[in-house]
UniProtKB/TrEMBL annotation, chain A:
Keywords attached to this entry: GPI-anchor biosynthesis, Signal
Pathway(s) where this gene product acts: Glycolipid biosynthesis; glycosylphosphatidylinositol-anchor biosynthesis
Organism (species): Aspergillus cavernicola
Protein name per UniProt: Peptidase C13 family-domain-containing protein
UniProt family annotation: Belongs to the peptidase C13 family.
InterPro entries (UniProt xref): GPI_transamidase (IPR028361), Peptidase_C13 (IPR001096)
Highest rank taxon of the organism: Eukaryota
Signal sequence residues: 1-25
From TrEMBL, chain B:
Pathway assigned to this chain's UniProt record: Glycolipid biosynthesis; glycosylphosphatidylinositol-anchor biosynthesis
InterPro entries on file: PtdIno-glycan_biosynth_class_S
Coiled-coil blocks: none
Stated name of the protein: Phosphatidylinositol-glycan biosynthesis class S protein
Alphabetically ordered keywords of this record: Endoplasmic reticulum, Glycoprotein, GPI-anchor biosynthesis, Membrane, Transmembrane, Transmembrane helix
Region (Disordered) location: 1-29
Places the protein is found: Endoplasmic reticulum membrane
Membrane topology: Multi-pass membrane protein
Length: 399, 564
C-alpha cells in the first residue's frame, strides 16, 4: 500500500518536472565568449582562429553586445604585419577578419585568467561596463571558444599564467548554480585540448576539443606573405563546416552533423566530444542545431493593431491614452493647488525616472582614516630601529 | 677572534696527532657546542614561533561563518510559504449592515469553494469594518461597490478602468435573505472576482511551480496539477511566452529612445514633450517596482545591414512591406549604436524608424502592423510621416517631427514597455494590472533571492578553497531578514511592503553571490604547490633540518653515554 501512496504523492511533483522540462527546452538569448590566450606575432593563428569564429557568430546573428571577445594581442597593428590593419585566416586573403566593425571587449594585458573567471562568474566591479560583462541568464545558450597553447589539463594565458581544468570546471559550476546558462557549448583548440573538459561537472554542457592527451594540435597552413601560420587545423575544418553548411540563421544543421564532419586524417589529431553532462546524453545533444549556439534567437512579436483579443495593443493604447489624460488633469490640479505643491511635484517626479545631473565634488574613496595606517607604519619603523640599535649595542658589548 | 683561537688550536692538535689520524678533527669545546646548539635552537624557534604562524596566517583563506542550513531552507521552500491573500473591500452604501455581512459571508464561501489554488486567495471585507482596524492594514486589491438598480433582472458589473473599483449593479430583489446559504447575486460576484484574477492566479501558479520553493510548498496541500487544470493550455502557453519575453528583473532599467532614419531628415523630434506626456506617467506608476532612467538619441543615415533582405513593394496596396520572418534582421546590430553602457542596469531599446521617402509607407506584411517587440530587448515602431515636397519635385521627410506625430509611436512604446516588464494582459483596468505586476514581482524576487541563497550555500560547501569575506556574511544576514519580512508582509497582504523588502533582499543576495573578492585561482594541484615551495624551502630547509638532526643525535648520544 505504502509504495503506491508514495507514488501518488510524487505524481504531482513528477508532473511539475515534466512541465518544467517542457518549458525549459527553449532558450531565450545567445551569448558567445571567444577567447584567444596567446601573445606575440608567431601566435597570429590563434587570434585569427578567434576572429573567424567572431565573424561567424556575428554572421549568424549574435549582436556585438552579446559577444565577449578577448584578444591578448593586436595582430592588425603589429609592426611585422605586411598588411597593416588586417587579419586573415586564409592564405587567399579573401576576407579581412578585422574589417571595420569589430568590438574587442578585453584586449592586451586585460586577458588574464582572473578576468576570464570573473567574466564567467560575473564577479566584477560595479563600474565595469556592460559590454565587458556576460549578461546571460537561465534562458541563455552560451558558446565558449578558447584557443591558445595548452597542455595536460591547463591552458596558458599570455605566457605568464595558466588556467587549470579544475578552475574552468568550477567557474562553469558556479555559472550553473547562479543560473547563468541554459545550455553551454564549450570548444577548445589547443594541444591536448580534450583534457581541459575532463573535470566539468555541471549539467547541460556539451564540450568538444581538438586533440587528445599527449597529442598536439597543428596549424593548417601558413601564408608566405604574412610569414606565419594563419589558422589551426581543427578550427579550420569547423569553420569550413560552418561556412559551407550553416549558411543562414535558419539552418537546420545539428551538432551531430558538425561533430561527424571531423576528419582525423585532415585534422591530424583526434578531436573529442563530451556528451555525458547533457540531459539525454549524446542522443539528445546531437539533435541541437548549430545555430542554437552560433546563432541568435530569432523571434519577434508583431503587434497587430486590428486584433481584438484582450490585452492587445489596441486595448492597451486606449488605456494608456486614458492614463495620460488623467496625468494631465492631475498635473493641472497640482498647478491649481499652488506653486508650493507644483514645486514639490517637480522635485519629486523627475527623480524617479531621471538620473539627477548634479555636479559632484571629489569624493573620498576610502572610509578609513589614514592615521591608523600611519601609526602602524610608524610603530613598525620604530621596532626595526630598536632591533637595529639593540643589535649594534650587543655586538658592541661583545667586541 | 674565537675562530682564530680555534684555528691555531686545531693546527696544534693536527701537528701533535699527525701520525695516527690526520683526518680526525679535534674535539669541540663545550662552549662551541653550546653556541651551535643555541644557533640551531634560535633558528628553529624563529621558524616555529614566527615563520610558521605567519605562513599559516597569510596562506589561510578567510571564510566567514554563513548560516548554511538556514540558507538551504529558504532555497528549499522550508522557511516560507508564499501566499497571496488579496483583500477585497465591499462598499455597500445602500445595504444595511446585517444584510451586507450576510452577502459577504455567502460570497466568501462561494469564492473559497471555487478556488483550488490555496496560495492565492481572495479575502472579502466590508468597507467600514476595515476602517476600524487601521493598524497592520493590508493593501486593498479591489473595491467592489454594490449599487442597487431597479430596472435590472440580473446583476451586471462594470470595471472602472482608471481605478481599482468594480461596480456591481444588482436588482434589489436579489439580496439574500438572512437565513439562506446561497444566492444568485453572491455567486455572480464570486464568479466575476474569480474571472478578474484568473490570469494572475495562473501566472502565480506558473511561477511557483517552476521553482523548488513553490513546488515544495504546494505539493502537500493543494496539488498544483489542480491549479494547472484550471488553466487552459492556451492561457498557459501565452503566459510562458510572456514570461520568456519579459526582461529579467533589475533594480534600474535604462530606457533608450532612438530615432533612426536612412536619410538626413527628420533630424529633430519633440522628444522631451513626448516623454513627458507618455512615458513619465507610466514610469511614475512603475516606480515602486524599479527605477528608470531615460536617454534619447537621433541617428541619421542609418542603413540596414547588407545581409538584411530589403523591403518589397506591394503593387496592389502601394506600400512597402517587410516580411515578418525578416524582422529579426531589421536591427543593424553591428552599426547602429544601440548598446550604450549606461550604469549597471539593462537597457530597454525603443526604436522609432522613419523610412526613406522612396520606401514610404513601410509596413509589416501581415496584419499591416507597424510595430513589433523583440523579446528581452525592446520594441520597434515604424513611423511613416507625411512626406513633403522638396525642391525638385522629389518627396522628402519633414525635418522635424512634432509631438502629435509622435503620439502613436509613444503610446505603442508605453505598451511595449508594459509588456517587456511582464505586466499581465487582463483585467482591463491598468491600475489593477499594475497591482498584479507588483505581486508578481514580489513573488519572483522572493523566489530568486531564496534560490540565490541556496546557490551560495552550496557553493560555499562545494568549493572549500574560495574565500568568504565578512561582507558576504552581512549581506546574507540582511537578505535573510528581508526575505522573512517580505514573507510576513505577503502573509498579511501588504504587497507593496513585501515588494520593497524583496527588492532589498534580491539586491543583497546578488551582492553576496557576486562579491568580487570571492574569486581567485582557487584550485592548485599538489604538484603546483610543490613547485612553488620547493625552490624556496629546499635550499633553506636542507641545512636547517640537517643541523637539527645532528643536534638531536648529539643530545641523544650524550644522554645515552651519561646513562651508560
Amino acid at each position: 500500500m505504502s509504495p503506491y501512496f508514495g507514488l501518488l504523492r510524487a505524481l504531482p511533483f513528477l508532473f511539475f518536472l515534466f512541465f518544467a522540462v517542457r518549458v525549459s527546452s527553449e532558450h531565450t538569448s545567445n551569448w558567445a565568449v571567444l577567447v584567444a590566450t596567446s601573445r606575440f606575432w608567431f601566435n597570429y593563428r590563434h587570434l585569427a582562429n578567434v576572429l573567424s569564429l567572431y565573424r561567424t557568430v556575428k554572421r549568424l546573428g549574435i549582436p556585438d553586445s552579446q559577444i565577449i571577445l578577448m584578444l591578448p594581442d593586436d595582430m592588425a597593428c603589429n609592426p611585422r604585419n605586411a598588411f597593416p590593419g588586417t587579419v586573415y585566416s586564409n592564405a587567399d586573403r579573401a576576407v579581412d577578419l578585422y574589417g571595420d566593425n569589430i568590438e574587442v571587449d578585453y584586449r592586451g594585458y586585460e586577458v588574464t585568467v582572473e578576468n576570464f573567471i570573473r567574466l564567467l562568474t560575473d564577479r566584477l566591479d560595479e563600474d565595469v561596463p556592460r559590454s565587458k560583462r556576460l549578461g546571460s541568464d537561465a534562458g541563455s545558450n552560451v558558446l565558449v571558444y578558447m584557443t591558445g597553447h595548452g597542455g595536460d589539463q591547463f591552458l596558458k594565458f599570455q605566457d605568464a599564467e595558466e588556467i587549470g581544468a579544475w578552475d574552468l570546471a568550477d567557474a562553469f559550476g558556479q555559472m550553473w548554480e547562479k543560473k547563468r546558462y541554459h545550455e553551454l557549448l564549450f570548444m577548445i583548440d589547443t594541444c591536448q585540448a580534450n583534457t581541459m573538459y575532463t573535470h566539468f561537472y555541471s549539467p547541460n554542457i556539451i564540450a568538444t576539443g581538438s586533440s587528445e592527451l599527449d597529442q598536439s594540435s597543428y596549424s593548417h597552413h601558413a601564408d608566405n606573405d604574412v610569414g606565419v601560420a594563419v589558422i589551426d587545423r581543427w578550427t579550420y575544418y569547423v569553420l569550413e563546416f560552418l561556412e559551407n553548411r550553416v549558411t543562414s540563421a535558419n539552418s537546420k544543421q545539428t551538432l551531430g552533423d558538425l561533430f561527424d564532419s571531423y576528419d582525423e586524417t585532415k585534422i591530424h589529431s583526434n578531436p573529442g566530444v563530451r556528451w555525458d553532462l547533457f540531459p539525454g546524453g549524446e542522443q539528445e545533444g546531437r539533435l541541437r542545431t548549430v545555430v542554437d549556439f552560433f546563432g541568435n534567437v530569432q523571434s519577434v512579436e508583431v503587434e497587430k493593431t486590428d486584433a481584438d483579443e484582450s490585452g492587445s495593443l489596441k486595448e492597451d493604447l486606449v488605456e494608456l491614452a486614458r492614463l495620460v489624460e488623467k496625468w494631465r488633469t492631475i498635473s493641472q490640479d497640482y498647478a491649481a493647488a499652488g506653486n508650493d505643491s507644483l514645486q514639490q511635484d517637480n522635485e519629486r517626479a523627475p527623480s524617479s525616472y531621471e538620473v539627477k545631473r548634479r555636479n559632484l565634488g571629489p569624493v573620498k574613496l576610502a572610509e578609513e582614516t589614514p592615521w591608523e595606517k600611519r601609526l602602524i607604519g610608524l610603530s613598525i619603523l620604530g621596532a626595526c630601529a630598536a632591533i637595529w640599535f639593540t643589535g649594534s649595542a650587543l655586538t658592541g658589548s661583545m667586541t | 677572534m674565537s675562530a682564530n683561537h680555534e684555528d691555531s688550536e686545531s693546527s696544534q692538535t693536527a701537528m701533535t696527532s699527525k701520525p695516527s689520524a690526520s683526518s680526525l678533527p679535534p674535539p669541540e669545546k663545550p662552549n662551541a657546542i653550546q653556541t651551535r646548539f643555541g644557533v640551531v635552537a634560535a633558528f628553529w624557534a624563529v621558524i616555529l614561533f614566527l615563520g610558521f604562524p605567519i605562513w599559516w596566517k597569510t596562506t589561510s583563506i578567510y571564510r566567514a561563518e554563513l548560516p548554511i542550513q538556514e540558507m538551504l531552507d529558504w532555497a528549499g521552500g522550508k522557511s516560507c510559504r508564499p501566499v497571496f491573500p488579496l483583500e477585497i473591500r465591499f462598499d455597500t452604501p445602500s445595504l444595511p449592515d446585517l444584510e451586507a455581512q450576510q452577502l459577504l459571508r455567502i460570497t466568501q464561501h462561494t469564492l473559497d469553494d471555487l478556488n483550488e489554488f490555496s496560495a492565492h486567495h481572495l479575502r472579502l471585507k466590508l468597507a467600514d469594518e476595515e476602517a476600524q482596524q487601521a493598524t497592520e492594514k493590508a493593501d486593498t486589491a479591489l473595491t467592489v461597490r454594490l449599487l442597487a438598480q431597479d430596472d435590472l433582472s440580473s446583476p451586471r458589473s462594470l470595471l472602472d478602468a482608471d481605478t481599482t473599483t468594480l461596480d456591481v449593479f444588482y436588482p434589489p430583489s436579489q439580496i439574500p435573505p438572512p437565513s439562506s446559504s446561497i444566492s444568485p447575486l453572491s455567486s455572480y460576484i464570486a464568479g466575476e472576482l474569480q474571472r478578474l484574477f484568473a490570469e494572475e492566479k495562473a501566472i502565480m501558479a506558473h511561477i511557483l511551480s517552476n521553482n523548488a520553493m513553490g513546488a515544495n510548498v504546494n505539493t502537500p496541500q493543494s496539488p498544483n496539477s489542480q491549479a494547472q487544470q484550471q488553466i487552459s493550455p492556451q492561457l498557459a502557453e501565452s503566459i510562458t511566452r510572456r514570461l520568456r519575453r519579459s526582461m529579467k528583473y533589475a533594480e534600474t532599467y535604462h530606457l533608450a529612445f532612438s530615432l533612426f532614419t536612412p536619410g538626413s531628415a527628420p533630424s529633430s523630434w519633440d522628444i522631451e514633450s513626448a516623454v513627458q506626456a507618455y512615458i513619465s506617467p507610466l514610469v511614475q506608476v512603475l516606480s515602486p517596482i524599479s527605477n528608470f532612467t531615460i536617454d534619447t538619441q537621433v541617428q541619421l543615415y542609418a542603413s540596414f545591414s547588407p545581409t538584411t533582405p530589403p523591403p518589397e513593394y506591394d503593387e496592389t496596396q502601394q506600400v512597402w512591406t517587410l516580411k515578418e520572418e525578416n524582422l529579426s534582421a531589421f536591427i543593424n546590430a553591428a552599426e547602429w549604436p544601440l548598446n550604450p553602457s549606461i550604469g549597471s542596469g539593462p537597457t530597454i531599446n525603443f526604436i522609432l524608424y522613419v523610412p526613406a521617402p522612396s520606401q514610404s509607407p513601410l509596413l509589416v506584411n501581415e496584419g499591416k502592423a507597424t510595430s513589433w517587440i523583440i523579446p528581452q530587448w525592446g520594441g520597434v515602431f515604424i513611423l511613416n510621416p507625411p512626406s513633403i515636397p522638396t525642391s525638385e519635385s522629389t518627396k522628402g521627410n519633414p525635418p522635424h517631427l512634432p509631438a502629435n506625430a509622435l503620439t502613436p509611436a509613444f503610446l505603442t512604446f508605453s505598451h511595449q514597455l508594459l509588456s517587456l516588464l511582464g505586466t499581465p494582459q487582463t483585467p482591463t483596468s491598468l491600475p489593477l494590472r499594475l497591482q498584479t505586476l507588483i505581486r508578481i514581482r514580489a513573488a519572483t524576487l522572493l523566489l530568486s533571492a531564496s534560490s540565490t541563497m541556496g546557490s551560495l550555500a552550496r557553493l560555499t560547501e562545494s568549493l572549500p578553497s574560495i574565500p568568504i569575506p565578512a561582507t558576504v556574511a552581512s549581506s546574507v544576514s540582511a537578505t535573510l531578514s528581508h526575505l522573512s519580512s517580505a514573507c510576513d508582509s505577503l502573509r498579511q497582504g501588504r504587497f507593496m511592503a513585501a515588494l520593497a523588502s524583496a527588492r532589498v533582499a534580491e539586491t543583497e543576495a546578488e551582492r553576496s553571490f557576486f562579491e568580487k573578492s570571492m574569486v581567485g585561482q582557487m584550485y592548485f594541484p599538489d604538484e603546483h604547490k610543490v613547485a612553488v615551495y620547493l625552490p624556496l624551502l629546499g635550499p633553506i630547509g636542507v641545512p636547517l633540518v640537517l643541523g637539527l638532526v645532528k643536534e638531536i643525535r648529539r643530545v641523544v648520544v650524550g644522554w645515552k653515554a651519561r646513562r651508560g
